[in-house]
What we know:
Layout: H1 2-10, H2 15-25, H3 29-43, H4 48-52, H5 61-73, H6 76-132, H7 139-153, H8 155-174, H9 176-188, H10 192-213, H11 218-226, H12 232-246, H13 251-258, H14 263-275, H15 278-334
Helix pairs in contact: 1-2, 1-6, 2-3, 5-6, 6-7, 6-15, 7-15, 8-9, 9-10, 10-11, 10-15, 11-12, 12-13, 13-14, 14-15
Main location: membrane
Keywords: Cell membrane, Membrane, Transmembrane, Transmembrane helix, Transport
Transmembrane segments: 99-120, 126-148, 155-173, 208-229, 307-328
Amino acid sequence: MCNNLSEMIASGLQISEVFNMVCTESRKEVIKESMHNVQRNIERGETIYESIKKFSNIYPLFMIQMIKIGEESGKLEIVLKELSEYYAKRHKTFNKIKAALSYPIMVLITSILMLTFLMMKIVPEFTGILSSTGGNIPILTSTILWFFTFFKDKFFITNLVLIIAMFILYKFSKTFKGKIYFDRLKLSFPIIGNIYSKFLVSEFSKSLALLISAGIPIIKALDICVSTIQNKVLEQKVQNSIRNIRKGESIYVSFKKQGIGNPTFLNLIRIGEICGTLESMLFKISSIFEYEVEDRLKKMVNFIEPVTILILAVFIGVVVVGALLPIFNITDSID
């Protein structure tokens, strides 16, 4: 949407006409309705910022503030172009993270479904035959069967407990304490936590760089950036840093006290402050961390695939052996 707005405004079309065209092109009903209202408000004399601010439940605060900056500076099409690139890169990174996690999850679900069918339908037939011939059911097979039979017999209770537990966790995750707990948990995960932390720093640096480049004072830029952070732990750290900066501390010292970012991030911030090139340093930080996130994701996918296959091979092997033992015992009893 930002890209379309930028190109249409750059082509010289009237603002109300631009929003009318975006409104007709949009597939999402919510976006279409909001754009239609924005267009009507602009025709009544409101600015784009004043109009779109009324839909802060749909559009992010960062985008709304950048539009305001673009209008005030007379560089709206440039700001919208930057927003388009910003959200396009963000969407691309999110898709890479989803792709990295989707393969092992799909393999795991498929394997569980296949094994459940095997143990619930096929193996009991053989164990029934073995029992009727007077043979003994192997301990491994009986243990696995007990596990599956338990969940089959207690299907309603186990699922009810699971649904209640998930509902409680969901409600807890919506509370402030819950958000803090789960966001801290995300950062503490081995390997994934490090990637997630660098992703957050990359997004934060890029947002802050865009705001500073648009002429926003550093404290106001940080205040706006807080709303774009998707992690309550980092959000609190940045808010604490803002309070310290207002008291006269440098960005580097306040960030270091709060433990924001790694040494590379902090050193580049310090250099940017000393040399007066904070904006370019933040863009550089964003690029460095974005590359590291992509590189780590590739390595993680390459690592996860064989490990997932190995774990599933061991698990399936145990179940298959448990399923085949009754067949061997039936053959022995016939002999």
